């Protein structure tokens, strides 16, 4: 997707060049709106969750959906995949799942007398890993290279994964029997962690009504191709983050390392995740530059799963979400500039 002429945002009198064109921003807004509408034909409510998934898609990041069974985690992931013209695979994680069941394996083909590689389900563009915490740590670790490097190494050969590449993982935080909690290294590979939450009474009634309707099983038509998704992802990288907003973003992540209640704060990878998500949110809103509100809206989903509380904080019932909200309330927000000019 061509970025065209640069645009300039003015923040506190400082010009910052945005390398994404007005046409590209308009296309991102159009496509994401169309995807929302398609998903809305199947999923009732959850607009904020859908926007987070779209932001992660634009950043080519990975998503961890966590909540109790029956809240629509798998349905949402499959519905998003149905709106994209990308290859899709679903992996049901179980304790007996092997790493080769995810990545694939080399086998000896007697007909041709040589070894051949049989790719596993990870060689898809959209991969749903259902109940990821039910697999053993060895199998979970098979995803680490794929999620970070977009490659798979088997038998000394490194194979690239198709692009775009998005892993949507689900897990149940309540039922712990027979599960293996994700280690911090793997949690850090997820761009965002989102809790679905229960629907409102009105939304739940609508869900029941749709299930009783003969046309309840809708087939979704893709609204964007894989090549177009790659173009949108490249365009998002050109969204400008002005120096005061960038400093505000870094101050938030650094504050997580200075709180007494937090044993392990967000790493620089957390700062990068927050920056990329803020760019995606700005582009989805039709802007070529990031506002402090874009950063604030992405702090909890981007950083919540990257923090480890001290034992004392956990005993007092404190949560990472509440601490992040306190940090946002304490750090001064930069003053908005004059807008955007071409």
UniProtKB/TrEMBL annotation:
- Every ChlI/MoxR AAA lid domain range: 254-327
Highest taxon, organism lineage: Bacteria
MF terms from GO for this chain are:
ATP binding; ATP hydrolysis activity
User: Per the database record, which ranges form the ATPase AAA-3 domain?
Assistant: 62-192
Q: Name one Pfam family in it.
A: AAA_lid_2
Show the InterPro entries listed in the entry.
ATPase_AAA-3, CbbQ/NirQ/NorQ/GpvN, ChlI/MoxR_AAA_lid, P-loop_NTPase
- PANTHER family linked: METHANOL DEHYDROGENASE REGULATOR, MOXR FAMILY PROTEIN
Give the family from UniProt.
Belongs to the MoxR family.
Name this polypeptide is given: ATPase associated with various cellular activities AAA_3
